[in-house]
Amino acid sequence: MKFFIDTADLDEIRAANDLGILDGVTTNPSLVAKIVQEPDNFSYEDFKNHIAKICQIVNGPVSAEVTTLTAEEMVVQGEELAAIDENVVVKCPLTLEGLKAMHHLSGNGIRINATLVFSPTQAILAAKAGASYVSPFVGRLDDISTEGMALVDQIVGIYENYRFTTEVLVASIRHPQHVVEAAMIGADVATIPFKVISQLVKHPLTDTGLKRFMDDAAVIKNG
Ligand code: G3P
Questions:
Q1: pLDDT tens for residues 10-42?
Q2: What is the mean pLDDT of the chain?
């Protein structure tokens, strides 16, 4: 199972990368907005430079999202984003226009992450449009009392039926149990916020056990 970090924060990306468990990064406009210090002066060039900085930190796929609504504009932006670095994956929304853009961009060898996916039919369309990744948003489905992980299960099953090579990238992860369930279903990737990555490490028995070992280690005299 691959672990991506779901953030645009360079410090968080560096910290997760230092752990040696990081396979890639996903960003979206809301995550980018969180790290922008001067919103009035943040240009599209600044956005592309920020994506380039992420690519310098992590040796793996980095999803950068288009910020336009028409297929034509998404294709232009997608080509520009893909030109930043060979690891850039262009994120397109699962709309009719998004599908057209995905089909065009993937046909030209640009890797696509189909985002804002909330149904199995959308996931089938993403695979048929040549997306490299499909991103079901589990947390946002849970938010509206619909079991997000059931969607992941459906997508994994459907993709197996037809041997689609699109990777299932579980997004909108909110807690460690989402990671466990994604792994049990066999999802290819989990994109995880830094806070949840930190929670994956924690167990109270590790903490109390370590304290006891450190206390008992006092009998071992140094040097
Ligand atoms: O990157 C997309 C996704 O992970 C969004 O998560 O928490 O805003 O639903 P969230």
A1: 999 999 999 999 999 999 999 999 999 988 899
A2: 97
For atom 5 of ligand 1, the residue with the nearest CA is: 172
* Sequence-ordered list of residues with C-beta below 8 angstroms from that of 28, at least 6 positions apart, any chain: 63, 65, 91, 115
| Distance (Å) from CA 171 to ligand 1 centroid | 6
Range name among 11-15, 133-137, 171-175, 217-221 with the lowest pLDDT average: 217-221
The DSSP H or E segment spanning 26 is strand 24-26
Ligand 1: residue whose CA is nearest its atom 3 = 172
SS3 string, 99-164, reads: HHHHHHHHHCCCCEEEEEECCHHHHHHHHHCCCCEEEEEHHHHHHCCCCHHHHHHHHHHHHHHHCC
Residue 101 corresponds to which amino acid? A
Tokens at 220, concatenated:
């071992």
Q: Which atom of ligand 1 is nearest to the CA of 27?
A: 1
Cβ–Cβ < 8 Å for 103, 129:
yes
Cβ of 27 less than 6 Å from ligand 1: no
- 175 phi and psi, to 5 degrees? -160, 165
CB 160 within 8 A of CB 138: no
Would you call 215 helix, strand, or coil by DSSP?
helix
- Based on the number of CB atoms within 10 Å of its own CB, is 215 exposed (0-12), middle (13-18) or buried (19 or more)? exposed
Catalytic status, residue 91: yes
Q: How far is the CA of 116 from the centre of ligand 1 (A)?
A: 9
- Cα–Cα distance between 71 and 31 in angstroms, integer? 23
